[in-house]
């Protein structure tokens, strides 16, 4: 064993350094078939990394060596809410909207500056970052919505991402409550802030984790190094579960309206062809008793106002948007991250003093978005019709670095074995419909907006020289308008169009894409889900 230990450690270090340090050497842009030679060169490098990773996943002990990773054929579904495929647009007899809101902080009972917690936001090879200051908060906002027949809970957390295993743990803790109170769909998504305490697991020093964790996987799993601190995750589980119960208890009858505002001036797509929904969506619940309104807001913008490698804890612009709405409109707000593959913020039109604080940019953007939300007019009342359907699926993983991270206990993902060195992630998709007109795609990661709304790369510009063979999901779902709730119930990373998967040496997105087939796999799963709906 000693004769192979050093070479194995060297291979591990090389693999993790590749994942942590590779940066784009080609600017994202339009590519023609004349550049296929360069593309093939980088794809060759990718294959070498893939082979190295496959070798490591073959010879390095992981959770699967101890029987904790089941074979796909032996996997049994748990804590999954399938919903209902009856999507009639007609309100049921005596139907009516009821909604409740609650919020909780993850930081109430912990000391974020104790040095025990890692920051998320960027891959760290040898030393994880610990918080040096807390600028605002990190927590969860939850709403529970019902039309009298279907009841849905939705929790939006401040965090880089939440793997499916953690979502299942939250559902397990809510199982009895949901059953007793007729909650048909329990959902948790992350806002993807890069300036929060790690909720996914990649904030740990990756090289040392993968060097040390193989032994932990075999003999003492609790000793595994991960960015997901147990105390913090316990606080997160507790806060989310409490917020669902509190939001349910706060439900009151009222009316629900849908509207949107143009916010494209605050959006920049770093990946060509540029595709994004330039609107900020709003669901506005108005209680019958004249109490405080509840707003559910969605748009797709990466929260990286403080940079990807900061050590300052901040919920970024969503926090300041919600604070602005609470003060200016006397409303509770739940912001949900949309489809934001490589979509980031553009604050060129905003005026703010960077010297006033590290959060100046986040505050300016949040308040600007809050102002746009408050200015929405011409809303559409939604009839009390709520449907939700979910589908569990297996996603074949061909990113060997992420496979290694999962096998070594860094992530809370749910994996199954398909072969000696073949693995799949157990994940889920979902679809909700409100008022018979508004569709909401529940996506377990960061999806390319082109998959939803069209303009996917054609054969003339895609990396592989092929077209994208699917119609936009917005054209297939059956709703008049489709919006996206991203990073929902899992974080499988970037979901790219298969024909335009580039190189980990030229793009950031490909490094964190679990599968080069994620785009087609999820598209076909959504198509099957849509086909199963009875209208």
Distance between the termini: 62 Å
- The number of strands is 20
**What would you call the structural class?**
alpha/beta
Oligomer: single chain
Helix content: 25-40%
Envelope shape = globular
Report the sheet with the most strands, covering strand number, pairing sense and barrel closure: 9 strands, mixed
> How many alpha or pi helices?
11
Write down the overall mean pLDDT.
Answer: 92
**Rg over C-alpha atoms, rounded to the nearest angstrom:** 22 Å
Number of domains: 2
Low-confidence stretches: 1-11, 19-34
Beta-strand fraction estimate: 15-25%
Give the gist of this structure:
The protein is α/β, with parallel strands linked by helices.
Task: Give an overview in words.
- There is one protein chain.
- The chain is an alpha/beta fold.
- The chain folds into two domains: 2-78 and 384-532, no CATH class; 99-381, no CATH class.
- 29% of the residues lie in helices and 22% in strands.
- It contains eleven helices and 20 strands.
- It has helices spanning 2-21, 36-59, 164-181, 206-219, 230-249, 316-328, 360-374, 400-407, 449-453, 473-476, 518-532; strands at 97-105, 133-134, 139-146, 151-157, 185-190, 252-262, 267-269, 279-287, 293-299, 312-313, 331-337, 343-345, 380-381, 386-397, 415-417, 423-434, 438-442, 446-447, 481-485, 494-495.
- The strands form five sheets. Strands 1, 3, 4, 5, 6, 8, 9, 11 and 13 form a nine-stranded mixed beta sheet that branches.
- The chain is globular.
- The relative contact order is 0.17.
- Residues 1-11 and 19-34 have low confidence and may be disordered.
